[in-house]
Amino acid sequence: MLQHLQGIVDSIENQYVVLDVGGLGFALLCSRSVLARAQRGGNLRLYTSLSVAEGGILSLFGFSTPEERKLFDMLTSVKGIGGKMAMGLLGTLEMETILHAILSGSPVLLASAPGIGRKTAERICFELQEKIKKTPLLSQTIVVPELSGQSTVAAAVLQALESLGFSLAESREGLQEALKKTVPPDSEEQLLQAALQSLTRRR
Q1: Which bin fits 77, alpha (ψ -120 to 50), beta or left (φ > 0)?
Q2: Rounded mean pLDDT of 32-56?
């Protein structure tokens, strides 16, 4: 099995990195952390996962760490989650954010990623929460803060906004505006939507 690749970055397009390894070009669908450090012409080492879909179509995925790859494998073990959908999560959200969402049972964080609906996000949390707690490679990666009530909701929404590309300052401002409105404090989805509306109007 292909465990890792190391070579020169030939090109970067959307979520794909083409890695030149000894004259062979490998196109890998990569995680957010990989895309953040990949530079054209630079040397890059990636942990990999090879997927074979129906019809024999091959897909190669690239990760920064073994932990990312392990999380990817666990995501694809959930019914209805294929490689591209799992990488869509890892391409949009930081690994720590995904782990926080699952361990704290906050599907709204996962549902902020393109292609992930609320029901799918809830299924991911339900199926993987206990498995991740029992997987040292992942459970030791993040400490879930012991928060309660509105602070839990606000913290989750703040993380979701940052994962969507807003700066910490923008996220805090959008969250503060949303909290001023009549949004139920236990509704992450409505609070996130209100914050996004506030931030969109400013841009």
Answers
A1: alpha
A2: 89
